[in-house]
C-alpha cells in the first residue's frame, strides 16, 4: 500500500505534469465574451464562474486576487474580510469577488477543491477554513495529506479528492484566471485588490477599505 507521502507526491506530480496546460488554459478564456466595466471592477470575466458574495447591484465591487498558500492573504481573510462581510457585504453595499491567483501547485490544488464542492456556499466556507488553518496544511511536512484531511471535513472522500485534483480541464481554467490577471492587470503579488477599479496591494485593514467604500456608499 502506498504511503500518504507517496500518494501526495503522485498528486503533486500530476499537477506539475499538467502545468503545460497553462498556455492552453487561455482557450478557456472567452475572448468573445462581453467585457465588464473595467473602470468599475478592474477586471474582465473568465470562463470559470465568478466566486461572488453580495448583491449584484451593490455600489462597490471589491475584487481580490489571492493565493491559498499566501500568509498575507490568510491575514486578510481572518482579520479584515469578516468586518467587510458584516458591515458592507451583508448590508448590500459591497459585492466581493475572489479570483484565484495560485502562486504554487499546492495553492492551485486548494482552489480546485473549492471549485469541486457542490454546495452553493461551499466554496467560500472551504476557502475560509483553509485560510483559518493555513499553517496546518500549507506548511506541514505532509502538505497534501493534511489538505486531504481538511477536505474530508468538507465532505470529500479519498476518491473525490483524487478525482478533483486529476481534473486537467479545471486546473487549466484556474490557471487561465491567473494568466488573465497577470496579462491584463499586471498582478504580481497577492493579495491584490480592486475597489471599483482602484488598486490596493497587501493585506489591507478594514479602515483602508472604508476610505474607498464610504464615499461611494454614501456614508
The coarse silhouette is globular
CATH T-level fold name: Glutaredoxin
**Rg over alpha carbons:** 17 Å
- Characterize the main sheet: 5 strands, mixed
Q: Count up the domains.
A: 1
Output the number of helix runs: 11
Percent in helix: 40-55%
Strand order of the largest sheet: 1-3-2-4-5
- In N-to-C order, the SSE pattern is HHHEEHEHHHHHHEEH
Report the span from N to C terminus.
61 Å
Unreliably modeled segments: 1-5, 16-45
Q: What is the mean pLDDT? A: 84
Question: Could you name the CATH class?
Answer: Alpha Beta
CATH architecture: 3-Layer(aba) Sandwich
- Global structural class: alpha+beta
Residue share in β-strands:
5-15%
Number of strands: 5
Structural commentary:
The protein contains eleven helices and five strands; from the N terminus they run H-H-H-E-E-H-E-H-H-H-H-H-H-E-E-H. With 219 residues, the chain is α+β, with helices and mostly antiparallel strands. It has a single domain, classed as 3-Layer(aba) Sandwich (Glutaredoxin). It has a five-stranded mixed β-sheet with strand order 1-3-2-4-5. Strand 2 (60-66), helix 4 and strand 3 (94-100) form a beta-alpha-beta unit. Helix 5 (105-116) packs antiparallel against helix 6 (122-132) and helix 5 (105-116) packs across helix 10 (168-185). The protein is globular and about 50 Å long. The N and C termini lie far apart (61 Å). The model is unreliable at 1-5 and 16-45 (pLDDT under 50).
